[in-house]
Amino acid sequence: xxxxxxxxxxxxxxxxxxxxxxxxxxxxxxxxxxxxxxxxxxxxxxxxxxxxxxxxxxxxxxxxxx
Length: 66
Known about the structure:
The chain is α+β, with helices and mostly antiparallel strands. 30% of the residues lie in helices and 12% in strands.
């Protein structure tokens, strides 16, 4: 994850570095982070059941998962 000067966030798939990066504007990224924090997103069975443990740094976690 890279924060750009205009507040946007750029992501790339570390498992497929040949793939193009994706850029989210500041509003899109804020909505995404809010959705994670409020458990509105379903990451499927691999994410495991139940709520996320308290104190998880959402942006660091997303960086590892994306």
